[in-house]
């Protein structure tokens, strides 16, 4: 088979004047890669059945959904659900809160695991390195409910540890969780804290691909540790970093519902109320699948645009993107 | 090997100090939870730092473990985690490998198809109806299949596969290998770090999954572990915002705090044990090493 | 490696085929329980499925068999009870919705809470059965236990009853608690008026009531809910979350009443002085308040009467850490006009039971619920057998022979809120606590008469605009209390209320108020004809 393909190529190159039609080139490529398509097939079939078959449910964003009527029979309402969302007096503020919080989380949360992974990579004592890795990803397994309880207990102005320290240095206790100045910083730092260690796993895996000889060569050339990280390790894991960056843009409007919901209070609504918490509060008056779906579609469309743009930029800069 | 320079020594020293500080910071919440779970339930009310248990009691653990629903839910979660991880990792790999080849005709289209599922989904009811139509309600398949492949994992794995030098494949092709044999004989063995990583992601997802139970399982003997624990925790304490205040009067005899802490320990420790076994695949130069050999 | 891969591929293909095949039979396999579809009582074996939320949710527990046996004896036919345990509170509504989306997955009896919109849809779609005839023939325990008002809120104006309450709380469940030992230490009397109460709270804060020489006490604490300040709001006769009946017979949202402004100003002052525990701004969980109470630095708090049950966690934890400490329940504080009230519970109930279209013998199913509502069966499934699992001493004090864990193992409490009896059949409350409940019934009455409890499930304006209004209200009120906003912010809130949709809400609510009065008349006539004679 392989021989036949080689023959074909040979044949084609021998007769440069006979132009092959686009279709036949296409077909030839498809036949050449038939095993790749075979590998792709189960995944595609899977997505078709388990993701695309139920996808019709998205239309309830444009309907007044009644669960007993079903998705198809429920009455169409056009963009009314979106309008209900947008006409909220504070919508602009809620949208900006969502964006700012998740942007800050990306800004600090994205590089953090890369830096930690670089540092872990430099540890020479294997036992210590493995132990550290295992411990670093512990916080990922804390549920927000429990973690929020610990945060509240630590930060409270009466008997929290943080304020105990402040008081020990003759400072005035600060009620962090009701303060508009501090609230977003708390959201961002606790999120980074919780996910930073877990995030290193992917980069550590990527760093296994670096040839150790290169470090040796660099050291002989007199490169210090930082220069080695910058010129060897980072370029080696750049493709993974870029893919992760593009994918995280898909979460740009996911500011973390549970975290915000468990930590916020009316005093910080101004800086903390996000799309998800707002939709949740509306759901308390009356469960509304259509409104929640509309909010979801709104977020996804923005995410799609961002991912598409980011992918384009990445490819223009000469790197490989999602496609 | 060149001896360590002075700068490198300073760097290493700082690095170790930083890591130890980070360790303490990261370890504390778990220490707090562990000590809290071992505290006397009456004394634990009131909070504190829990550097050591307040009083000592393993009642919270017995309360969780002796419930007959615990063992069955642990069984369900073990099966779904193992099967789901095997199926999920394998098919994530096949899909990702095909997409990693830029020569693949229609690759952009297929990548987009995969991406789209990351951003849009049909919602609860259509998914529920699908599983019902497929006849999977109240079966382990319902807990395994709907979450086996996800777009994020496919793309991450794809970017790793791209890093495998093309020359290896070219050489294999000249030796008469086709794409299937290349994938199984060369690519998979070279990709242990990413297979371990994605495998871990998938395993953790299945381990922590409770929502599939809510959607697809009625029989309490088939609940997943996290569904059982969530229910247990909420039964002993109700968030003020969530529920009706009057409900609280009905059940106030169990201490919520120690049960909650013990359930976290029980839920987390098994999955934590997995990681050290995977770590050997993360050894530096693992990929290069195997290329040489 | 290769072998296992081949195996995997084979498995997947088999799976796809098996899925494709089972697809055809999937729809029919379910829903074949019971034996006749005429609605009349059969004689063969009966399986009744119930959705359950209460208790430990222990599967295949003793209590399930005990109930099945009790029902078998009662109905004189083989009965099995199919327990469908709902998942945790935050997920159970999703589960209920999915189960109710199709007849083949509906339980015979649905237990649910909130879900007004869905309930309305179920009624409209005809998937719930009218219980009136079955309540007449088999529902004596139910109609004797619930009063006229309880049934009114579940009554459909078309003259049908599609749900009955699963649990209606005691008329008053909360009380102002105060530290008796601190009052004694400082030589103070139990406060009765708002001025006295404020003075006591100040003394609790500044006069070192526990005598430890440290300034570490607060007058009052609580959760981040308005009810934490019920002693203040209720003394002034307002509940900021309810619609209040005005002297002229109209309805007004409690937040807008001028008394609210006075209370906020008072609270702002107390917060600034340090009388109010600042944690009240961030306490979102029960646990937080439990902790604060257990640490024993709080003089007064508004909480549940059930705290005084000697076995309650709060009580045990508090006693453990403060052996000399003692909270007492006091009468509600009187306001400037002499008005006083505790927080009333509504008569609507917070959870409900419906019989779905899946029940093929609805009359028998009602009989089952009714049996569960009888004092004997209720005691059996809630506390077990007397003598074996618990004793009642001569003073009527209940004593369980089992630990909490052992009771959980038996599944006691699994059937909670299937007509939860609050009378003598509820053995757990000590006589003192029962007395407290009775006292709250009286002390919550003044406010009960001033609050309009809305029956209608169709409140489009409220649904649409309430979130925005309440968001602004919460920002404003908590902002004022904490001192972040001046009291004039309240006036801005009142000014904005109308434009935020408040005008429409007011119009809607006033209309509902007059409609509800008419409905009450109609209902009474219906009740006298359809329920009263069948008791």
From TrEMBL, chain A:
Residue ranges of the TM segments: 35-53, 94-123, 135-155, 236-264, 289-310
Q: CDD domains in the record, alphabetically?
A: TM_PBP2
Q: Name one GO biological process term.
A: transmembrane transport
Keywords for the protein's UniProt record, in alphabetical order: Membrane, Transmembrane, Transmembrane helix, Transport
Subcellular location, in the record's words? Cell membrane; Membrane
GO cellular component terms, alphabetically, are: plasma membrane
Q: Which SUPFAM superfamilies match?
A: MetI-like
The entry sums up its family as follows:
Belongs to the binding-protein-dependent transport system permease family.
Protein known as: ABC transporter permease subunit
TrEMBL record, chain B:
| Every ABC transmembrane type-1 domain range | 74-278
* GO BP terms in the entry: transmembrane transport
A Pfam family matched by this chain, by name? BPD_transp_1
Q: Which residues form a coiled coil?
A: none
Q: What is this protein called?
A: Carbohydrate ABC transporter permease
Q: What UniProt keywords are attached to this protein's entry?
A: Cell membrane, Membrane, Transmembrane, Transmembrane helix, Transport
Similarity comment: family membership:
Belongs to the binding-protein-dependent transport system permease family.
Major place of residence: membrane
Q: What is the annotated localization of this protein?
A: Cell membrane
Q: Which organism is it from?
A: Aquibacillus salsiterrae
From TrEMBL, chain C:
Q: Where is the signal peptide?
A: 1-22
Q: For this UniProt record, give its keywords in alphabetical order, as a comma-separated list.
A: Signal
A Pfam family: SBP_bac_1
Residue intervals passing through the bilayer:
none
Concerning SUPFAM superfamilies, the annotation shows:
Periplasmic binding protein-like II
State the protein's name: Extracellular solute-binding protein
- Species in which this protein is naturally found: Aquibacillus salsiterrae
């Amino acid at each position: 088979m392989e021989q036949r393909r080689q023959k074909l190529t040979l044949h084609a190159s021998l007769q440069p004047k006979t132009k092959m039609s686009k279709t036949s080139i296409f077909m030839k490529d498809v036949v050449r890669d038939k095993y790749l398509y075979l590998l792709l097939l189960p995944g595609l079939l899977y997505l078709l059945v388990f993701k695309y078959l139920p996808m019709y449910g998205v239309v309830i964003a444009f309907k007044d959904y009644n669960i007993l009527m079903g998705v198809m029979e429920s009455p169409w309402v056009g963009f009314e659900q979106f309008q209900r969302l947008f006409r909220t007096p504070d919508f602009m503020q809620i949208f900006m809160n969502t964006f700012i919080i998740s942007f800050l989380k990306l800004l600090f949360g994205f590089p953090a695991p890369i830096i930690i992974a670089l540092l872990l990579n430099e540890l020479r004592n294997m036992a210590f390195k493995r132990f550290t890795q295992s411990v670093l990803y512990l916080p990922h397994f804390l549920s927000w409910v429990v973690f929020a309880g610990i945060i509240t207990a630590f930060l409270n102005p009466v008997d929290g540890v943080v304020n105990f320290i402040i008081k020990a240095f003759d400072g005035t206790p600060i009620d962090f969780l009701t303060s508009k100045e501090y609230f977003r910083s708390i959201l961002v730092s606790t999120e980074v804290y919780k996910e930073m260690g877990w995030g290193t796993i992917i980069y550590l895996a990527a760093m296994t691909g670096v040839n150790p000889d290169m470090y040796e060569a660099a050291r002989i050339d007199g490169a210090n540790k930082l220069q080695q990280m910058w010129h060897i390790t980072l370029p080696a894991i750049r493709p993974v970093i870029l893919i992760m960056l593009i994918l995280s843009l898909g979460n740009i409007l996911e500011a973390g519902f549970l975290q915000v919901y468990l930590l916020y209070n009316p005093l910080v609504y101004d800086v903390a109320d996000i799309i998800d918490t707002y939709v949740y509060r509306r759901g308390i008056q009356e469960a509304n699948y259509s409104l929640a779906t509309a909010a979801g579609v709104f977020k996804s469309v923005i995410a799609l645009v961002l991912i598409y743009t980011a992918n384009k930029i990445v490819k223009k800069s000469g790197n490989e993107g999602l496609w | 090997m060149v001896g360590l320079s002075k700068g490198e020594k300073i760097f290493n020293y700082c690095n170790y100090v930083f890591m130890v500080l980070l360790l303490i910071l990261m370890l504390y919440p778990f220490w707090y939870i562990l000590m809290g779970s071992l505290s006397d339930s009456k004394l634990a009310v009131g909070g504190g730092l829990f550097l050591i248990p307040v009083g000592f009691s393993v009642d919270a653990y017995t309360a969780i473990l002796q419930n007959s629903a615990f063992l069955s839910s642990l069984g369900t979660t073990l099966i779904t985690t193992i099967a789901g991880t095997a199926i999920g990792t394998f098919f994530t790999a096949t899909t990702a490998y095909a997409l990693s080849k830029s020569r693949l005709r229609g690759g952009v289209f297929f990548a987009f198809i995969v991406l789209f599922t990351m951003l849009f989904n049909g919602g609860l009811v259509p998914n529920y109806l699908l599983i019902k139509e497929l006849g999977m309600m109240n079966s382990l398949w319902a807990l395994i299949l709907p979450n086996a492949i996800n777009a994020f994992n496919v793309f991450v794995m794809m970017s790793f596969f791209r890093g495998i030098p093309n020359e290896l494949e070219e050489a294999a092709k000249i030796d008469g290998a086709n794409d299937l044999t290349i994938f199984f004989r060369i690519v998979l063995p070279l990709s242990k770090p990413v297979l371990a990583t994605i495998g871990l992601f998938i395993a953790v997802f299945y381990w922590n999954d409770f929502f599939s139970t809510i959607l697809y399982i009625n029989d309490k003997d088939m609940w997943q572990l996290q569904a059982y624990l969530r229910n247990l925790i909420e039964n002993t304490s109700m968030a003020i915002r969530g529920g009706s205040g009057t409900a609280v009067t009905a059940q106030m005899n169990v201490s919520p705090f120690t049960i909650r802490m013990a359930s976290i320990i029980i839920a987390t420790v098994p999955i934590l044990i997995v990681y050290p076994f995977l770590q050997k695949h993360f050894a530096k130069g693992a990929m290069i090493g195997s290329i040489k050999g | 490696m290769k072998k296992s891969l081949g195996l995997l591929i084979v498995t997947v293909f088999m799976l796809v085929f098996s899925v494709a095949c089972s697809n055809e039979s999937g729809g029919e396999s379910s829903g074949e329980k019971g034996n006749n579809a005429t609605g009349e009582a059969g004689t063969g074996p009966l399986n009744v499925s119930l959705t359950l939320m209460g208790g430990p949710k222990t599967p295949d527990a003793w209590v399930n068999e005990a109930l099945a046996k009790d029902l078998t004896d009662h109905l004189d036919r083989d009965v099995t009870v199919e327990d469908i345990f709902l998942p945790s509170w935050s997920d159970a509504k999703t589960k209920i919705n999915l189960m109710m989306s199709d007849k083949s997955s509906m339980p015979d009896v649905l237990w649910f809470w909130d879900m007004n919109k869905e309930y309305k849809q179920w009624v409209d779609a005809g998937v719930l059965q009218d219980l009136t005839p079955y309540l007449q023939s088999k529902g004596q325990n139910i109609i004797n236990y619930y009063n006229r008002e309880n049934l009114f809120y579940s009554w459909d104006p078309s003259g049908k009853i599609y749900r009955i309450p699963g649990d209606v709380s005691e008329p008053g469940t909360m009380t102002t608690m105060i530290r008796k030992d601190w009052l004694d230490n400082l030589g103070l009397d139990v406060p009765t008026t708002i001025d006295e109460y404020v003075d006591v709270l100040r003394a609790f804060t500044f006069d070192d009531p526990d005598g430890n020489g440290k300034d570490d006490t607060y007058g009052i604490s609580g959760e981040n809910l308005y009810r934490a300040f019920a002693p203040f709001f209720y003394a002034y006769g307002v509940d900021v979350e309810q619609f209040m009946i005005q002297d002229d017979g109209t309805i007004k949202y409690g937040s807008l009443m001028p008394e609210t402004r006075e209370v906020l100003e008072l609270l702002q002052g107390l917060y600034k002085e340090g009388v109010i525990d600042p944690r009240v701004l961030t306490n979102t969980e029960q646990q937080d308040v439990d902790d604060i109470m257990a640490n024993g630095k709080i003089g007064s708090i508004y909480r549940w009467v059930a705290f005084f049950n000697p076995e309650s966690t709060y009580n045990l934890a508090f006693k453990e850490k403060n052996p000399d400490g003692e909270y007492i329940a006091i009468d509600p504080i009187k306001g400037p006009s002499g008005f006083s009230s505790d927080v009333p519970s509504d008569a609507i109930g917070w959870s409900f039971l419906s019989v779905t279209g899946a029940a093929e013998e609805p009359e028998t199913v009602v009989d089952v619920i009714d049996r569960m509502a009888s004092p004997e069966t209720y005691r059996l499934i809630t506390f077990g057998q007397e003598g074996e699992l618990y004793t009642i001493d001569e003073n009527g004090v209940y004593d369980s022979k089992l630990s909490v864990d052992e009771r959980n193992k038996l599944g006691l409490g699994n059937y909670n809120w299937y007509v939860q009896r609050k009378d003598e059949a509820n053995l757990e409350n000590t006589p003192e606590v029962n007395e407290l409940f009775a006292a709250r019934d009286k002390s919550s009455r003044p406010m009960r008469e001033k609050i309009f409890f809305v029956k209608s499930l169709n409140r489009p304006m409220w649904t649409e605009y309430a979130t925005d209004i309440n968001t602004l209200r919460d920002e404003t009120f908590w902002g004022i209390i904490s001192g972040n906003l001046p009291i004039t912010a309240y006036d801005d809130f009142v000014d904005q209320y109308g434009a935020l949709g408040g005008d429409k809400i007011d119009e809607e609510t006033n209309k509902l108020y007059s409609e509800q009065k008419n409905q009450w008349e109609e209902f009474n006539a219906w009740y006298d004809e359809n329920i009263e004679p069948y008791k």
